[in-house]
Structures are given as C-alpha cells and as structure tokens.
Design goal:
Elements (H helix, E strand, L loop, with lengths): L2 H15 L12 H6 L7 H4 L1 H7 L8 H8 L4 E4 L5 E6 L16 E6 L5 E6 L1
Antiparallel strand pairs: 1-2, 2-3, 3-4
C-alpha cells in the first residue's frame, strides 16, 4: 500500500476517534424510551423530570447521534435556512387511542444548518 493510502486511512481513523461520546441519562431507560413511540404507552411521561434536568447533554450532537440516543423522532420539520426540528412526544399524542391531552408535551430539538443540535426545550 502506498504511503498516501496509509495517511488517508490514518486520517479517517483519527477523525472517527475524535467524535464526541454519546451522553448517558441518569434515570432514563433509553430502550423503553425508544419502544414508546408517540408516548402511547405512557413510559416517556414518567421520564420528563430526568430528561428536563439533563437535556443540555444533547446540545451540539449531530442528527445521527440524537437518533442513536433517542431513536427516530415522532415528527420532524424542515424550516427555513436548512434548520430542522425533531419532536419527541412526552405525553400520548392524538394518534394514540388513550390520548387524553389535546396538546401533549414534547421534547423539541432544533438543529442548525450544519446539523448540530442548537436548542433543546420541552414545550
């Protein structure tokens, strides 16, 4: 193998190794979170206080990293200037048969044009 191929391989490995580690959330069972799509089972609602206290751990993560941690969003929205929003329901949505809430709480993640989480809120 030529030296330029070795350098390229080394550069790729260094870039991969320098990535930000995925966060861990105390008091949140991420497996149960991912299984509760749309919050229809009510599992996510029990995790609201823990998520609210630790939501800053998601800042500056890439979209793919957010999906690795929290699973696919319940909704997403593409906004102007290539901004994107991910919405994770925290209470049963209107799509659930057991929904009693007209406007359920949601974890909202706003991404900038570079695909990094810029703002995290619970609305």
């Amino acid at each position: 193998m030529s030296s330029s191929k070795w350098l390229s391989l080394l550069l790729v490995l260094l870039l991969y190794a320098c990535g930000k580690p995925l966060p861990r959330f105390d008091g949140v069972d991420l497996g149960a979170w991912k299984d509760d799509r749309g919050a229809c089972k009510g599992v996510r609602e029990e995790m609201i206080p823990a998520i609210d206290q630790q939501k800053e751990k998601l800042l500056a993560l890439r979209e793919a990293d957010i999906i690795s941690v929290l699973g696919k969003p319940d909704e997403n929205e593409l906004y102007k200037r290539n901004q994107k929003f991910f919405y994770y329901n925290l209470q049963p949505s209107k799509d659930c048969s057991s929904s009693a809430v007209d406007a359920p709480k949601q974890l909202v993640i706003r991404f900038n044009a570079m695909g990094l989480a810029k703002e995290i809120s619970i609305e």
